[in-house]
C-alpha cells in the first residue's frame, strides 16, 4: 500500500541552527502539506503546496519557514534558525486532486520529532 | 473560520465498554469530516470519514454519523479493546474549488482502555 515517508524520525538540533525535514509523498498525489503537533497540543496546519507553489499557509508559517519540492519526489520543510518553541512533531501529508469542488483524503507520514536544545 | 471542538480527555474505560467521543464543528458550506487516530509513538492514521450530511463512516468497529442539524460527528464504538488505546482527533476539510484543502483538527481525545 502506498504511504508517505518522512526522514529522519527524530532530529535534535541546537537553537539557531537550520534544519531540513524530508518527506516523500505518495507518487500520484499533487497536494502536499506540513502540519505540526507540539507535545500535548492539537495538530496545527502549517502550509499546503500545489503546482510548485504555496497554496495556503498559516500564521505559524513565518519567514523562517520554507518549503520546496527539489526533485519531483521529495517535499522538504526548512526552518532557517530554530527556536526552542519549534520543538514539535512535524507531519507531512499528501492528497490526490480529484477535481473542482471535491474533497480529498490526506495521507500522513509517521512524523519527524524535532527537538531544539 | 473553520473550527472543531471535541471532548477533552483522557477517557478511561474498561475493556468491552461503550465509547463515545463527542465532536462538533463550525464551518461554512458542507465540509467533509474525519476521525484520525494516533497510536503511541506513531503518526496519524485515518480511521473513518463522511463527506455529506447523514453519511455514516465506519471502520474497525468504530462509526460516526455526519449530523448537519447538530453540526456533530461523534465517534462511537460498542465494545472497546485495550488495543484501541490511542489519541483520537476529529477533523474537517472545507470545500474549495480546485480540490485539496487543509484539515482543521480538534485538540484530540486520549483514550485509555484497561482490562
> Mind telling me the C-alpha Rg of chain A?
14 Å
Percent of residues in helices of chain A: under 10%
Please trace the helix and strand order of chain A, writing H or E for each element. EEEEEEEEEEE
Shape of chain B: globular
Return Rg of chain B in Å.
Answer: 14 Å
What is the count of helical runs of chain A?
A: 0
Shape of chain A: globular
State the end-to-end CA separation of chain B. Answer: 41 Å
Which residues of chain A sit in consecutive blocks of at least 5 with pLDDT less than 50?
Answer: none
Q: Percent of residues of chain B in helical segments? A: under 10%
Mean pLDDT of chain A: 90
The biggest sheet of chain B amounts to: 6 strands, mixed
Mean pLDDT of chain B: 91
> What's the total count of β strands of chain B?
12
Structural class of chain A: mainly beta
Structural class based on helices, strands and sheet pairing of chain B: mainly beta
- DSSP strand (E) fraction of chain B? over 45%
Low-confidence stretches of chain B: none
Describe the structure.
- The complex is a heterodimer of chains A (117) and B (115).
- Chain A is built from no helices and 11 strands.
- By secondary structure, chain A is mostly beta strands.
- In chain A, a hairpin with a 5-residue loop joins strand 4 (31-37) and strand 5.
- The relative contact order of chain A is 0.33.
- By secondary structure, chain B is mostly beta strands.
- In chain B, 0% of the residues lie in helices and 50% in strands.
- Chain B has strands at 3-6, 11-14, 19-21, 23-26, 32-38, 44-50, 56-59, 62-65, 75-77, 86-93, 103-105, 109-114.
- The N and C termini of chain B lie far apart (41 Å).
- In chain B, 38% of the residues are buried.
- The model of chain B has no long low-confidence stretch (mean pLDDT 91).
- At the A-B interface, strand 4, strand 5, strand 9 and strand 10 of A face strand 5, strand 6, strand 10 and strand 11 of B.
